[in-house]
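Friendly challenge for the regulars: who can give me the structure tokens for this chain first? No prize, just bragging rights.
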Amino acid sequence: MKIGIDTFGCNAGISGVGVYLQQMLKHISLSSALFELFGWEYDRYIFKEAAEKGLEFVARCRVSGDMSNLLWHIFEYPKFALERAYTVCFFPAAHRRLPEKSPCPTVGTVHDMSAYWSAWRTKEHLGTVLRLITPNSLRRLDSIIAVSDWVKQELMEAAGVKETCIEVVHNGVDHEAFYPRPRNDESILRIQPFTFKQPYILYAARLEYPVKNHAGLIRAFEIFKQRTKLPHRLVFAGSVSKGSKRIKDFALASEQRANIFFTGPFPSESLPELVAGADMVVIPSFYEGFGQGAVEAMASGVPVACARAASLPETAGRAALYFDPHDYEDMADRMVSLASDSALYKRCREAGIEHAKNFSWDICAARTLQIIQESV
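First reply, four minutes later:
Bragging rights claimed.
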């Protein structure tokens, strides 16, 4: 069996989808099949760990840009897959990039359907053309992996995919990287090339307006500071996306602007230390397909407060505190509770550590491989 893996749409490994593919390649069993990656030339170096494991990489689509890549998948992929003699093809970013037809069975992972969700249905999320053709392409997949029950339901409602074609496989957590670290009395945390003054509240997500709701968290942080007078800072760690200027404008206009810090794209190898050093992690997003940041924080022994929205209650379970993402006072209440109630803080911390044990990349990779093999 020869399995082709499409690396297009994985954002050069820096997004959640990119991390997902890296973890798949790290934990998947290579003894059961022959694997081959194909994508942009620079993906060869992004997924170099896979190359070190002996996986071949084939560069395709020399012209950059979403539209040229979309056209490659429509017109060139079928011939390419036939020439490479793939038994089956796996698309780890199926909500972003898919062919219309394939000479072999296809399996794709869908991480979210935010482009089709409520009032935030804008071309910033996916692009007008892709929003029109993606549902048809999704329905042509032989099997779909949804990262949550929430995404599964959206696939059925927004794309008309049959329930029998979808299987939910939750993401995992890298427990070797995300784990509780001992706290010391130092007020400065040094993570090259940054220096963070503790205590701080962390939100690690790309700067995407309005879906990620950074502006709402800024408002809640102002209320938190007014009520508690505590020395906490607010740290935003994430890459720039469309609408990021509006988020930074909100921060510059805030009375707490001196206590709000943007790291920009944060080195993935240093992210676990940043998460573990936080006093709490707050996830105010209006929409999450899974909520990776919640389980990574829990695995690190950091209490989580998150929005009662989309997949977050499914992912975080009973280990998190919840708020209405549209209600800044409600959001601030949860932050104040975690900062002022030591018993509650301890309970959330312990519950989070236990809950995070339910998420494993080994289990995720094994089940994903099984679904791919069963599609033939």
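The longest helix spans residues 66-83. DSSP finds 14 helices and 15 strands in the chain. Your move, everyone else.
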